[in-house]
Amino acid sequence: MTPELKGVELCESAALQERGLAVSFDVLLWGGAARAFALRFDGRPVSYVNRCAHVPTEMDWQPDHFLDDSGEWIICSIHGAIYNPRDGRCAGGPCPGAKLIEVKVDERDGKVYWYPSADVQPVFQD
After folding, report:
1. Rg of the Cα trace of the chain?
2. DSSP, res 15
């Protein structure tokens, strides 16, 4: 089976605590090196490319810290843009209506998996 069909194992489910630290991972975005992150929000894993929709820079203010103090919003530490963790849409700041690049994820058998797309691919392919 190819990674596109079965998913790429990211982490144990327990590594993603509700509204806690993210798990970051390397990807290829449009063929170039990039980082992505997954976190647990409202009981399910969500994942996005670590790139602000305003200016393409990494957003975490410390490694794997993406949520604001309230735990309600993903926040860009550089530009102050805030994003809804449920869908990646910018809810305030310099990029209203823009969206983070989603990385499809799911959780099964105590593990979290991410799924490559046309834009986001694994760094190492089998």
Report:
1. 14
2. G
pLDDT tens track, the chain, 126 positions: 344 457 999 999 999 999 999 999 999 999 999 999 999 999 999 999 999 999 889 999 899 999 999 999 999 999 899 999 999 999 999 998 899 999 999 999 999 999 999 999 999 865
Least Cα distance to 14 among 48, 45, 49 occurs for 45
Q: Which CATH class is domain 3-113?
A: mainly beta
Contact 80, 68 (CB under 8 A): no
Strands 82-83 and 120-121: unpaired
Q: Structure pTM?
A: 0.92
Rounded CA separation 40/31 (Å):
27
d(CA 46, CA 119): 17
Q: What's the rounded Cα separation, in Å, for the pair 56 and 15?
A: 27
